[in-house]
Amino acid sequence: MEKKLKALTHLYVTVFMSGFASFIVVPAITDVTMFALCPGADECSLAIYLSGFQQAVIGVGTALMMPLIGNLSDQYGRKSLLTLPMTLSIIPFAVLACSRTTNYFYAYYVLKTLTSMICEGSLNCLALAYLADNISDSQRASAFGILSGITSGAFVCATLAARFLSTGSTFQVATFASMLAVVYMRIFLEESIPDRDDSLTQPILKESEDVIQKDGNSLPRKMPVFKKIPSLGDIICLLKSSPSFSQAAVVAFFYNLAEGGMISSLMYYLKARFHFNKNQFADLMLIGGIIATASQLFIMPLLVSPVGDGKLLSLGLLVSCIQAILHSLAWSPSVPYAITALSVVMVFAPPSLRSIVSKQVGATEQGKAQGCISGVSSLANIIAPLIFSPLTALFLSEEAPFHFPGFSILCIAITLGIAFIPSLTIGNAPSNSSDKNSSDCMEV
Asked: How far, rounded to the nearest angstrom, does the alpha carbon of residue 98 sit from its chain's CA centroid?
């Protein structure tokens, strides 16, 4: 038990440092983009369209890569699969750490797009699978909530740092933190590989990645042969493995469609509507992040047992829908700040959804399951900017068919409402993780 707790501590530190590197640049990237593409302007359709296009291309890559990465992690281990995306994520930060001129921005744009096709979502997917390897069903929702809380804590610290750092220093710190995360992970994080001989046994945590114990003797580990990339049919088969898994996939799609819309629209909406800048974005994110961290670390673990992850999922989606409606109707700059208080409930949704998914598959399928849901989420991220970026640009321009700057945000609220409906039927999903592997169609 002590060994597992130590391993999970190293996982949390890795997630924190990597998340810190990713989040510290978020408040600055809108201003960097606007300065490079439309200097001196508060509204820039080119920036909105380029951001939306980037998000869609990244979504295509991650939709293909997440099932593969999750599948391979079940075979070769979580740590081994973490190394590549964490290393690649350093490159775009380093480019803007050198300069934020137009040419450097376009270099960053291309490199960020290419690397994020592999990196986007990989850390979260593999961290969830790592936790599922080493946490029992009854504790899984709380553990996933704590992982989300660690991520939110990284977000808070990064946003606070961004508030006081210059733009150039922000990207330099991001580069250093991402490099430190890779080094720490390679040195301290123990490998976790599910025992493929018996799906009912606990996963293996070991210092060495090259040996296993069998009948008391140390033998070279025979690594499984990579046979194929999971096909669409494989993924569909896994989605059909249980009704709760299928419903969770539907919820994940519409939830991430809405989240993708928020990413591609909200900052540009606030900048055009209330002239928000880097510092105001940082303040807004900081308030929401502090609330989310406290909720996921302290409130959610207390509610999981008496309420259940299914009801927490529905509650989080409902409040997210309400928050989006209030954003779309915002009448003063203080409104976005006030409604961040709703984050205390909104943050229940993602870890509850992942917990439900984790309980529907066997011990050796956690990577496949989390990768599959990440792939569904990435598919939504492909579609989201294609819908919401043009809609946002249209209603922020003078050619809008009617005056409603927040119309695209209202459409996002409707999308969250669609996700809320199937979440009501998931309930407290029964666990299949103690059974024999629930899907044999994605064997590699």
From this structure: 27
Q: What is the DSSP string of 53-64?
A: HHHHHHHHHHHH
Containing 186, the helix (H) or strand (E) segment is helix 167-188
Buried b (16+ CB within 10 A) or exposed e, 53-73: bbbbbbbebbbbbbbbbbbbb
Of 104-108, 179-183, 372-376, where does mean pLDDT reach its minimum?
372-376
Residue 360 DSSP symbol: T
Are 362 and 245 in contact by the 8 Å Cβ rule? The answer is no
DSSP 3-state of 293: helix
* CB count in 10 Å sphere of residue 1: 5
Residue ranges of alpha helices (H) inside 341-434 are 343-346, 349-358, 366-396, 407-426
Q: What contacts 46, CB < 8 A, 6 or more positions away?
A: 37, 38
pLDDT of residue 240: 73
Weakest mean pLDDT among 373-382, 391-400, 419-428, 432-441: 432-441
The pTM for the full model equals: 0.78
Q: Which of 301, 427, 444 has its CA nearest to residue 371?
A: 444
- Sign of the CA dihedral with 60 first, then 65, 66, and 71 last: positive
What's the whole-number mean pLDDT along residues 267-275? 86
**DSSP structure class, residue 403:** S
Give the model confidence (pLDDT) of 137-161 as tens digits: 878 888 898 999 999 899 889 888 8
Q: How far is CA 104 from the centre of its chain?
A: 27
Phi and psi at residue 192, in whole multiples of 5°?
-135, 115
- Give me the domains of the chain, ranges plus CATH numbers: 2-189+230-426 (1.20.1250.20)
Dihedral sign computed on CA atoms, order 91, 33, 107, 374: positive
Q: Kindly tell me if the per-residue pLDDT of 207 is higher than 50.
A: no
Report the Cα–Cα distance between both ends of the chain, in Å, rounded.
Answer: 31
User: Is the Cβ–Cβ distance between 12 and 151 less than 8 Å?
Assistant: no
Distances from the Cα of 217 to the Cα of 77, 94, 209, 221, 437, angstroms? 21, 46, 16, 12, 28
Task: State how far the alpha carbon of 100 is from the alpha carbons of 35, 268, 291, 371, in Å.
Answer: 9, 19, 32, 34
CA atoms within 13 A on the CB side of 78: 35
Say which range, 3-7, 93-97, 103-107, 201-205, has the weakest mean pLDDT: 201-205
Task: Look up tokens 């804590």; give the residue.
Answer: 153
Distance in angstroms (rounded) separating the CA atoms of residues 258 and 316: 13
